[in-house]
Amino acid sequence: MKKIEPSDKLKDLPPYLFSSINALKAEAYKKKLDVIDLGMGNPDLVTPKHIVERLCDTVMNHQKTHRYPQAKGMPRFRRAVSQWMNKRFNVDIDPNNEIVTLIGSKEGIAHLCTTYIDSGDLALFCDPGYLVHYNGIILAGGQVHRVPLLEENKFLPDLKSIPEEVAKKAKLFFVGYPHNPTTAVVEDKKFFIELIEFCRKYGILLAYDNAYSEVTFDGYRAPSIFEFPGARDVAIEFHSFSKSFNMCGWRIGWACGAKELLYPFENLKSYVDFGVPTFVQLAAVAALEGSQDCIKQRNEIYQRRRDKMVEGLNKMGWNIEPPKATMYLWAKLPEQFLKMGSLAFSEKLIKETGVVVAPGVAFGKYGESYVRMALVTHDNRFHDALLRIKKFIK
Predict the structure, then answer these.
(1) How far apart are CA 192 and CA 194, in angstroms?
(2) CA dihedral of 148, 237, 144, 263, whole degrees rounded to 10
(3) pLDDT of residue 17 exceeding 80
(4) Are 127 and 137 a contacting pair, CB within 8 Å?
(5) Which domains does the chain have, with CATH numbers?
(6) 3-state SS track over 275-304
């Protein structure tokens, strides 16, 4: 019998380095080691009560919401998104034609690649970056050009360094700030003007990942790409409830942009999924229309955790600037561990201390020499984590 093989596209994906970390984590649990998991960006804080109550009421008392939803998203949800975008960013988004509901932004990003990339097409990936940006391109049959995000450039892509022949061939460019995993934000808004002009010049679709727009500190305000002129000609923006409202497991988000750019994406999704359950969409409406105090309160918790970890790590020889956004720390390894590499460091740290961090190389080749720490465990655990890391480094 001929061996049944998966697609070449799936084989072309790089090894999933988190698998190694997850295996070691599972091994640590089996050994009853006290694991402190700072590896995955999986919020430990609960979904706000008013959102949960809306879901429960809808499921119990509105049984029509148990039926198939609209793939595009129900009008009620899209109106709420439109109003929230206007209030939050002062941009006008047509709820009828410029919003598509997503089963989380990760799903939407992967399907956007399928929508716009044919076999052999070139796409630009900011490296290091969110893994589905890269994987989505490969699974759609595309070719990846890595755009380095370097510390000396504040982890922003150097658009002038992209070769002319590459820019002319590129169809899609993934960019997103606040940035995962580097925690970088854009301080000089000229960057957005230059980014939009770059995409307009070469006819590139800009996929702007704004999943962390509501996780910010120290007075920083994350913008929408649509606050800048010309963006509607080239951009689709992604948002997620996962980080904004601690709704990771609910799987809901949205994409927005000009009708001409969004319609092919909407059309593809109508072929492959039925969309988000209606009762989840209505709970998300409660999130958007209800008090936003829960966001402020959540950010205060993350900021407190950030300050504790940054202070503690810097005392032991790390060199970390407090990030102005995201729920992560992006930390360059202390000098004595640079030759070891981020994966070996992360594996050794788990085995010897039970503290889980994500190796930077898992996010791309330019993530080497860094680790990402997610601030997603109870406040009193960070003291223990710091003690263990200090002992490990010594």
Answers:
(1) 5
(2) -160
(3) no
(4) no
(5) 8-47+293-393 (3.90.1150.10), 49-289 (3.40.640.10)
(6) CCCHHHHHHHHHHHHCCCHHHHHHHHHHHH
Q: How many CA atoms lie within 13 A of 367 on its CB side?
A: 26
Query: What torsion, rounded to 10 degrees, do the Cα atoms 25, 30, 36, 38 define?
Result: 20
Residues 6+ apart with CB under 8 A from 159: 194, 195, 198
Q: Could you give the angle at the alpha carbon of 371 between the alpha carbons of 370 and 374, nearest 5°?
A: 145
Q: How far apart are the first and last CA of the chain?
A: 56
* Residue appearing with tokens 């939803």: 69
CA angle 236, 241, 244 (to 5 degrees): 105
Tokens 């990936």 correspond to 125
142 and 291 in contact (C-beta within 8 Å)?
A: no
Convert the pLDDT of each residue in 239-293 to its tens digit. Answer: 999 999 999 999 999 999 999 999 999 999 999 999 999 999 999 999 999 999 9
List beta partners, residue 126: 147
- Residues in contact with 237: Cβ distance below 8 Å, sequence separation at least 6, in sequence order: 208, 210, 224, 225, 226, 255, 256, 257
Read off the pTM. Answer: 0.96
Cα–Cα distance measured from residue 315 to residue 308, given in angstroms and rounded to the nearest whole number: 11
